[in-house]
Every structure is written in C-alpha cells, then in structure tokens.
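Teaching soon. Invent one.


***
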Amino acid sequence: MYDIRKVVIIGIMAFVSIAMLVRLFCVQILDNSYKLTSESNSRRKVVQYPSRGLIFDRNGKLLVSNQAVYDIMIVPREVHEFDSVDFCNTVGIDMPTLRNQFKELRLNIRRRRASSYKPSVFLKQVSGENFAAFQEKMFRFPGFYAQRRTLRKYEYPAAAHVLGYVGEVNENIIKKNPYYVQGDYIGISGIESSFEEQLRGQKGVNYMMVDVLGRSKGEFRDGEFDTAAVSGQNLTLSLDIELQRYGEQLMRGKTGSIVAIRPATGEILCMVSAPSYDPSLLIGRDRSVNFPKLSSDPLKPLFNRAIQAWYPPGSTFKTINALIGLQEGILTENSKYPCNHGYSIGSFHLGCHGHASPLDLRQSIQHSCNGYYCYALRAILDAPKFGGVHNAFEVWKDHVVKFGLGYKLGIDIANENRGFIPNAAYYDKAKGRNWTSLGVISLSIGQGELLLTPIQLCNVAATIANKGWFYTPHVVHQIENAEIDSIYRTKRYTEIDTAYFTLVQDGMEAAVWGASGGTAHGAQIPGIKVCGKTGTAQNPHGKDHSIFMSFAPREKPEIAITVYVENAGFGATWAVPIGSLMIEKYLTGSIRPEREWVEKRILDAELITMPK
C-alpha cells in the first residue's frame, strides 16, 4: 500500500514537471506573445485613418474632397512635467483651454471613457502649420504625439442636404458598431450617411519604436505587424451641380423645394431645399459653433424639405384622378362635366376660377377645373361596379399607392418621409362608418388629408412622362468598383394602361401651349415642348403654396421637375416660372435673352414668411 502511494506521488510530480517544462519551452521558444508584451513599453500603436472617398457630380466635377488635419494624442501615464506656455503657443491654444482639456481627460479616466495607459485624443483638428511646429518640439512634451486625420472639403457652397455632413461618433454608435472608437468620424446625414460604409474605407495601423522621451525611432520590427489603411470608394452622383446651384439661386429669399429627375433612369438631377446652408459651415471646429445656430434658426435650414416636408399636392393630383377614372372605365376622353365657378350640391360649394364650361378630360387638365374633378371622383367612388364607397375607395387608394405615394419611395438618402394617403379605415374612424363620397370630395383636387413630399410629386411627373412606370429615384449614379443597388435598376409599374397617359399628357401640354390659354402658359420655352400642371395648395398656417409639376420635352423626356414655393399664392405666379427656368437651363445651358426679365424677377423676389 505504501509503495503504491509512493509511485502515484512520484508519477504526479513527474507529470507536473514534464508539463511545466513543455509550457516553458512553448513560452520561451515557440510563443512570441510575451516577448511582444515586454516590448510594448518601447512601441506605440498609431492608427492610420483612411481618406474618405471622393464625391463627383454626373459631369465629373469634384464636389467633396479631403484636407489634412492632425489630432494631438496623449498617453497619460507617459506625461511628465513640461512647459505649458510653450505647449500652448506651439499647438495654438490658450492656457484655459489646456486646463479644461486636462480636466476633461481626468473625468473621462474616472468614468472609464479613457485610459491612463492607452492613447486618446487630447486636441482635435490642429492645423498643418501648428502640427509642423509641434513635430519639431515633440521631444519636449513626453506623452504627446500627433496623428494625421482628414476633414471633408466641400468644393461648392451648394447641395448641403444631398451631400450631408460628417461628425464625431457618440457612445450609442460605438456600442452598435465595433468599427468605431471614441474620436472617430461618421456620416451624419445625406450621402455621407447613406454610403458611410463605402466612403469611410478601412483603418490601418502602424507600430512605431519610441524612446523614453516618446520620440519616434522608426518602425517596430520593420513593419511586420503593420496594416495599410484602405481609402474609401469614390462616388459619382447623378446630380448636376450647375443645375443645383442655379436652383438654389432661384430659391434664395423663398421657402420650399425644387426636385428634378431624369425620367428614363430615375436619377435625381437636383434636389433643392430652401432655405439651405453652406456645407463648409459644418466642418471641423467650426461645426460646434455653427450647428447650434442652424438648429435654432426658425426657418429650419437643416430640414430637407425635398424629402421630409409634407404638402398637399393641390391640383397636380387631378392628373392621377383622371388616370384612375380612365382605367376603371368611369371616364373617357370625351367625358364632360359642367363648372359654374365650382361644384355645388345642396348647401355645399367648392369654388373654381372662371373658364369655359363644360370641359372634356383634356380641357379639364388644361384649365385645372375643380368642378370637373368633383364630379369625376364622386363618379368613381359611387360606381355600382364596386359595391359601395368603402370598396371603391380602396380601389382608388391602391391605384394612388402604385404611383409611389403613401410610402417611402426608398431613395438613397437618409430620413425620407412617407407622406400620407388615407384609406377607408381612416375615414371610418374619423367620420363613422356612414361617410359618403361627398365627405371626401376635397381629395378630388389634391386637398384634404392627402400629403406628399416634393420628391414623390416629382416622381409622379416622371411616371406620367414614362407613360406608367418609374425607377426608384436615386442620387448615386456609380460606386467605385461596385454596382448600385438593384432596386434602382428595376422598373416599377402603375396599373394604368399606357394609352391613358397620352390623354393626360395632351392636357398637360395644352396647359402650357393651349391656344385657348392654360394655367401653365408661363412655362413656354421656344423650341421645347413642355408639359405641365399647376397647383395651388391650401395652407392652414398662412398663404397658399405655389406648385408646379412638369416634364420636357414631351416626346423624349429628359427632365421631370416639381417646384414648391411655400406661402406664395398661385402656382402660375411663382412655381411655374421657376420650373420653366430650370428646364431651360438644363436642356439648353442658358436662359434666352428675351426671358431674362423672368429670371431677374425670380432672383429679386423675397417671399419668406417668418414663422410665428
């Protein structure tokens, strides 16, 4: 028994000894990790930040580039006494700023947002001039070193809402995405946000040997563990920057939006939201000063009205009601309805401007007759074939939705709104189950509960131009070494027969060129067959909104456009001339001398109404 115990103990000791010898052999001969750890005191990990991808317009003009700045980094445990006055003079700050930075650093260490052993940003975005001075004196400031970064540079003071801006990540972003760490930058809005993964590139890392004073002594192990930063992918937008700039000039002194789309491709040619701002205001250190000012501005220059604002479509919506009536066999091209300065039944009256009566379908669009579409909508909703107004309304709504209304279109810019198209259940709740076609009569002229975004209405214009189909609107034309999403290359169809669009196009052409006049007569451009439809949307908060929806040329449309001018009155007064100038500028490159007075009138107009 004694001998067995002795053998077991000896065996265990022998096994442990052999295991320890094997482990020591692995640690000392095979495994480099401990050696690397022992070397960590003499090396520094320097993150290499990639340049963000460049952004170009459809004609190859550079819109967004990069400029170099430098962050002053700090490793707190390596900091020793230094000349603080010399430090401030070198990096271009004052003494109170230096004290505040150390105070914030200590606070972050206590809250475990920073470490005494790892580098963190001490001063952001030091200029190249200050960096050069700091680099020469860096040995005087142990624990500090500089790290190169890039900031965006906007080549034009335009297209701020399309391009968006870049800002520093917050804790929520860091928690959701491990790619980012404190001090990193990310696209916040516009294309910078939607295409962040493509634009940001991939970070690299360099390991540098440093002496006891923190001075660089070259690469660690000849760069064996280094990885190169990979620059972001370049983007080519469908945007025409000259058209965009011209649209922003026309909308100075006004509130509203202009959206233009190339019907054949769904590419967005311009997206103007007014008032706007210079995108350079939100770069670097200036952003902390300018962003609060822009955010608190009562005119909301940061708000992208083109994709976020909801407006009634007004009389532009009559084109859709006409197409639904034709498709469902309720209307024909020869359908005529009377208009005695509007539509009256019992004590109810919905007014209209003076024009000939009765009108057929083409003429109803040409003269934008309210009475005609009151009769037309009631004929659709009360048609016996549907078996009741609820069923009829759902058929009507389904047609409307097929035009890309009531839901987000799915454009490639963040924060798009969906607008609002009511359904029968909405009116059941709002009016009770016994509501009638008369109770929703305002929908006939694009009023009531209908709400669209400007880009949705522009897409309607593109759909009419294409006679029943559209591509999802998008602003990115090409991604370097990649393809745009297939949804932007897939046609979406309405359920309206192509032939009916010809009738509506006839009416829109007559609205501009009709011998007997038309509501969009002011959109005439010599030599270009423009089709258009005006709108004047009621505004419960002030003067009516001026609206124009158009495309040109009719036979081979190159541009579809929508203009909204808030609180400006009739569509023909302001939106029509703005739309016609934009079309002429895009198709011909200039404004004819005989139309320069129109351009001057628009450029000089101040129509902004300050919010109460």
Notes: The longest strand covers residues 62-74.
